[in-house]
Every structure is written in structure tokens, then in C-alpha cells.
Amino acid sequence: MRTKAKTTTKILLVDDDLDVTFSLKLLLETNGFNVDVYNDPSLAMANFKPSLYDFIILDIKMPHLNGFELYKKIREIDQKVRVLFLTALSDFSDYQEALDKVPSTIAKNCFVQKPVDSQELLKRIRI
Amino acid sequence: MSQNKDSVNSKRKDTESLRIHINNHHIQGTSVIIKGRKTALLEAYRRSLTSVHDYYCITGDELAKSYKPFIPLLRDRINKRSGSTQILTNIEKGTILAVKELTEAGAQVKHIDSSSLRRCVVYDEDAAYFSIVEEPLITHTAIDSVNETEGDDLWVASTEHTVIQSAKNRFLSDWENAIQSNDRINQLESGIEPEFYKVIVDSEKASQIIVDLTKSIKREALFFLPNDKSLIRVDNLGIIDYLTEASQKGVTVKIICPLTQQNAGIVKKIETAPRINLLNGNNSAYGMYIMDGEKFFRAEIKQPMADKFSEAVGLAVYSNRKTTVDSFKSVFELLWNERALVEELKRADKMQKEFINVAAHELRTPIQPIIVLINILLSKKGNIVTHHEEILNVINRNAKRLQRVTENILDATKIESNSLDLKKEIFDLNKLIRSVLAEYKGQVRKADHVKITFTSKNPYYIRADKIRIEQVISNLLSNAIKFTPEGYVIIYSAKIKQDDNKPTAMFRIKDTGIGIHPEIHPKLFSKFSSKSVGGIGLGLYLCKSIVEAHGGRIWAENNSDGKGATFSFTLPLHNTIADNPSAFTKHPR
């Protein structure tokens, strides 16, 4: 009834944990979103195209390409898409080093800690 | 050779010009130049046939080569109870025999450092011989003729009274300060170097001392370097290379030095040496070096940023005095222990923080699907019926995952506080392996990509904590699967005899995965060593603690074919059970 857009909101979800992506995809799809899931961040980047997604959910601690590195690559070709980091880490400063100056451009409200409540996550996307 | 001749020629020219110059002041007697050491000494010895008091100051080398014919003359003099012979020379190991024989024959011998040796031979009031090279006296005398013989040594032989007097006086003053031959021989024979405490003003010499000291290390070198640049300076002197070489021969090296970006390259080089230990230190106004606990060198830093060692050092002190060396060695040890403790605390603090972060990550992650999926089930939204079973499976799996992480953290805490209780019972190891495998196959998604094989043989009975051993097997299995993207995991068990001849069961799990990273390998079984993205870094630490608590051993190696790794552990077999298992099957406890 609320913001069910005329065109469906398209979400990219990148997380190396299969059970996390299974549950979140199910949650988002039952709430009317269109979701692409990648468990391999490199593959997500390889298939990424600008303006393809309205919203991106990124894990931070992932093998080979961490969430910040992936974010940096995404931003190089798509400056508009909204990004939310969803992480179980308390301290991700080690991972952030990969970004150089970029972190200052990521607002604090772009980070959400796992486990996130379903309603909280949906609210973040619908803002 | 030609160079030598040139120098002899130029010396002769000098003496000739001297002769012309000094002829005017000629008083009485004659002076001749004798070329060749041997001739000079032979002539000198001939004199001693008739003289009463003679004084020799010659090198130990010269003495050892020419003393023999002199012995009967000395004995003869003793028999006649007349006259004396004083010999001043540098006594070294090779001249001890000559010195002993001469002393026995009645000569007085004293030791003088070779560097302060001024060669001369003086007889009574009659004649003096001295080497031109060390000889400033030549300026006071005139040369009447040059007597050319074999050899390049130039000596002056003089019968002039003033020359003889001054040569004799100089000899006697050297004699006063010289060391008794017995003392010197004792030092040499006991291998104890005489004590010295030198203040080095010449910084080139200081730099030479440091290099020489480093080259002579036998057991241990302690370096306290004042700033980051000083590591670069000693490296420029080749010292780090000498130390590396020495460390390969078993020498222990400890270096305290401020570590910065500037000297990071050298630090990397040092890290390849087996026994060079390096600790970060604070800046200081002086550097300190202690070699083998025997020699000590301390230098003030004049120019901290200089490129060359000799430009950087100011006043230096060099000593082998035991009290000095010992006290600075204990100062160094105190500093070392303090630095080591600081580093250790930093490391522990960092590890603790990392652990909390990783533990938090591993505890929170499985909660995410549980929360979301239960929420979906409760909302009864959408088409959940088609996913119903999978939803429950995921919830179940993550609840177990959460349980496993929690248990691991609690177990590690128990091991730390030595309160890991083992509830031992007798059971068949192979049966346990089969049950772990059966449970595992239903649990793990990725297991589809990996073929797991285990062919069990006869039962191997062991007396152990079944739940703990299950934990070890399950951990090794999940690791093997985790690190094997695709291929095989092969498990086998065997009965082996160890060195102590006790019957032992061995468990082995071989995979075709990515293998053990060389950086991780040495600390594989210690806490938080994992480099994997998932996992808390406690699994193998717990495995090791459990196996060892049972009196077993655990180890790991990369497969010789370069693909994957093999983990093995042993546990003592239960002896009587192995022989007659049926007797115990009814009452396993």
C-alpha cells in the first residue's frame, strides 16, 4: 500500500554467507523487491552495470574483495546508487584502509550491524 | 717490490742529506747505516761478546728467529757473574718458548705492545743500533757510510756518545712501563686478555673497532642502537651481513633499535636471519655494543642524522674490563626485557581486540538468518510454503553454528584456566569417525563439491572423552571441506607403534584443497592463527589442547604433490581392549 513503486525497486545483495543471502533475499522478495544475489564479490563486480540497481546491500568481511573495495569499484562507474553496508563486525577500520579518502564520503547512517531486524532493514531501503 | 725499493732509495737520500746537514755538529765516534735486519742484529750480537750491559728492543718475530746463538753467551756471562742483558719485546704465543729459554739463560725480558715498540740495541757506553723507521734519533747524528747488504731494513749503528746515551735512556723509560714476562706469559697461557679501558677519540678508529668486534663474535652480540638511522649506518659498514653470517653459525644476536619506515628495508633483511632478534626501542643519545659478554663499546652520538658511522659518533669508550662489561650487559638485558614486555603487551592487546571483533562477527552472523526467517514464518507473507523446509533447515543449521562458536569460546576459556574436564570412556574410534561423517554429510552445503571417503577397518578401541574426540574429528573435517573448493577428502585410521613401543591409533585426513599458507604453518595450532574469512581461529587450538590432554600428538603438513594438506593425530590405544574387545562391549564404562 505504501511505497510499492510502479516499477519494482531493484536490489543488489552481496554477502559471502549463503544462509544470510538466502534469508535476506526471501525477506526482500516477500516484500515486493527484485533482488540479485552474489556470494562472490568479484562476480558481482564483473556483472555490475551503472543504473541497473536502485539499492545495494554490501557485506564487509568477504574473501578476495572486501565490501569497501567493492564499494570503491562500484562508485567508479555508478555515483548515484544508494549503498548500505550490513556487517557483523564491530570494528572495520582494518578493512576501511583499502579506501584511502573515500570513507569520509560514506555517511554514518550507511552502516547497519548484523543481525538487523527485518522491519529496520525494510525501513532503510524505503526511506 | 719496486715500490719497496723506491722507499728505500728515498730513505737513503734523506739520510744522505742529513749527513751533509749534521756533519757540522759532528762530535765524536761514527754512525753507519746497515741495510738488512739480519746483518744489523748479527753485528749487534757480536758486540755483546765484549759488552757488560746490553739492552735490546726488538720485535718478537726478530727475537724468535735470532735468539739461539745468544743463549751460550748469556750462560757464559752468568758463570762469570758479570753484566746484564735486558730484552724488551712483544711477547706473543709464538715467542713464549724463546722468552722462557732466554730468561733461563739469565736475560731479563719484559713485554711491550708491538705498536709502541721502538727497535734498538744498545751496548754499554760503546755502541747503539736502531732501526731508522721508528727512529727519530737519526736527526741528532751523522752518517759516515752506508753498509749495503741483503734486505730492505735500514738500521743505524753508532758509536757516538750522545746517541748511545739517548738511545739507552729511551730504552730504560720504555722498560719501566713494560710488563713482566711472567705476567704476560700467564695471560697468554690462560687465554685471558689483559684488561683495558680505552677512550677512542678518532671516530674512524671507532668504526674499525666496531667492524673488527663484529667479525670476531663467537657466541653473542648485543646491540643497542640510538636511532633508526644508526641501523642503516651499521649496515653500511657491513655489520648486518656479518651478523647474519654469524647467526647462521649459531651466534645469538639481539638488537634494540627504533624501527621506522626508514630502516624497514634492513629490518626485512634481518628477519631472514635465524638468530637475530630485533626489538623496537626509543631514541637515545648513545649506542652500545656488547660482544660475547667480553667486550664493550659505547659511543656518544654527535650527529644523529649522519650517513656514515664515523661521522655520527663522538667520544667512544672501548673496554674488556669484566665489571664494565657485566654492568652494561645487565643494563642491556633490563632494556631488552622491558622492550620485549612492551611488544608482548601490544601484541596481546591487538590479538585480544581482533579476537573480540572476530568472535562478535561469528556470533552475530548466524543470528541474522534466524531472526529474518522466523520473522518471515510469523508474518505468513508471500509464498513461504514452497520454502518451508529449507527455511527450517537454515534456521537449524545456524542455531547449531551459533552453538558451535559459543562452545568453542567457552572451551578456550576452560583450557586457559586449566579446567577442561575429560570424561573418559572406552569406544571404537572408527565407529566415531563414521558417525561424525554421517552427521556431517547432512549438514554442510558445500560438501556436494567434495567427495569424502573413509573405509573403516577393525575397531580401534581407545579410552578417551568421546565428545571431545568427536569435536576434534569434526573440526578437522570441516576445515578440510572448507579449504577444498573441489576434489577429495580422504580419511583413514591406522594402528601404529611409536618410539616408546606403545600401541597407538592414528587418524589422518588428507584433502586436495588450497594447502597451508607458509606464514600460518608455524603457528597453525596456536590461538587466533586462522587467516580464513569465516572462523574464529580457535578450532585447531582446541584440537591440539584436546589431543594433548589425552596424551596424543597432532600435526599437519602440506601434501608432497603440492595439492592440499594432511592433518594427523595420534591417541594411545586401549591395550587390553584391542586384544579382546568383546569383553568390554557390554559394559563400556
Count, helices of chain B:
19
The strand count of chain A comes to: 5
Per the principal axes of the C-alpha atoms, what is the gross shape of chain B? elongated
Specify the biggest β-sheet of chain B.
9 strands, mixed
Instruction: Please tell me the total number of domains of chain B.
Output: 3
Look at the structure and give the mean pLDDT of chain A. Answer: 86
Q: Which strand order does the major sheet of chain B show?
A: 7-1-8-6-5-2-3-4-9
CATH class of the largest domain in chain B: Alpha Beta
Helix percent of chain B reads: 40-55%
Structural class of the secondary elements of chain B?
alpha+beta
CATH classification, class level of chain A = Alpha Beta
Strand content of chain B: 15-25%
Task: Indicate the topology.
The complex is a heterodimer of chains A (127) and B (589).
Chain A: E1 10-14, H1 18-30, E2 34-38, H2 41-46, E3 55-58, H3 67-77, E4 82-87, H4 93-96, E5 111-113, H5 118-126
Parallel strand pairs in A: 1-2, 1-3, 3-4, 4-5
Chain B: H1 2-22, E1 31-35, H2 37-48, E2 53-57, H3 60-66, H4 70-79, E3 84-89, H5 96-104, E4 108-111, E5 120-123, E6 127-131, E7 145-147, E8 154-158, H6 161-177, E9 179-180, H7 181-190, E10 197-200, H8 203-215, E11 220-224, H9 228-236, H10 239-248, E12 252-257, H11 264-271, E13 276-280, E14 286-291, E15 295-301, H12 309-312, E16 313-319, H13 322-379, H14 388-416, E17 424-428, H15 429-441, E18 450-454, E19 461-465, H16 466-482, E20 487-497, E21 503-511, H17 539-549, E22 553-558, E23 565-572, H18 575-579, H19 582-585
